[in-house]
Amino acid sequence: MSALRILRVFNNNVVLTRDELGREVVVTGRGVGYQGRPGGAIDPALVARRFIPSDNPVSVAQVIADIPLERLALVERLFGEAVRELGAIMPPLAIVAAADHLHQAIERVARGEVMEYPMRAEVAHLHPDELQVAERLLDKLNSQLDQPLPKGEAIALAMHLFHAVTGSPSMEQTFLQSRLIRQIFDVVHHAYGDEFDPDSIDAARFAAHLRYFFARARAGKQLTSGVPTVAVVLAEGNDRAHQLALRIRALLELRLRHTVTADEVTYLTMHIARMELGMRTRN
Q1: pLDDT tens by residue, 160-216
Q2: Reported pTM
Q3: CA distance 263 to 223
């Protein structure tokens, strides 16, 4: 007997249910909602996917119901491969966000509409790994579509990948984090002038550290102990980098509205010191 009870049938393939824990669960699968009625049971054999939204389950179900099953499956397969290529585990709801975006993009192309993405330079600086993977993902998608999507869609896909990899609670939060990284890079540029190269490998590592700092901070798991000796040595040996790290901590605390631990500041100092060393080496 199924533990899932129907709350609302959106179409033959998408149903909002309640599970044995009392959670509202969106299930998809060919024919899973056929002749279903509120209160009825779901045939587990028909369920292909389960999504457990933290809020707005009706809205999530409606978004999924608007996407053809074949398109949802294609995005799930290719986007999932891209997330794993970045070394992360796919959050189920990230599939919904990416599938909804791509569904809308495909429909726009069919109508002859063009969507502009002016953020390419910023995304290339802040999320180079995600952008490279997104460009390959777009090529794979286009090989499966009758009308290919424009190359600019790789920018949006990179942001969706960043959202999935860091576990940001929303795409809005993802863009806010990117703007904050941009602000931090502006602080570093103001301190070092044109010596600072945002395209350098050290800058890319710093951006990656910030991305995962956001993920830790959101989960309440900031670094509080066990800082490697090399980080401590770099931090203690470069007062300029340490003072800049303190300025960045103040910015982070202002924007994120919670404190940043001393160990996190040590890591910030280490990355800034490495970038400074790279600047001296290049010059």
Answers
A1: 898 788 765 555 666 677 778 888 988 998 998 888 888 777 787 787 778 778 777
A2: 0.62
A3: 6
Do the beta carbons of residue 14 and residue 33 sit within 8 Å?
yes
**From the CB of residue 200, how many other CB atoms can be counted at a distance below 10 Å?**
15
Token look-up 């899932």 returns: 4
Is residue 63 within 8 Å of 100, Cβ to Cβ?
Answer: yes
For 63, residues 6+ apart whose C-beta sits below 8 A from its C-beta are 96, 100
Backbone angles phi, psi at 260, to 5 degrees: -115, 130
Cα gap 8→5, rounded to integer Å: 9
110-162 pLDDT, tens digit per residue, is 988 777 776 676 677 777 889 999 999 999 999 999 999 999 899 889 988 98
CB 4 within 8 A of CB 16: no
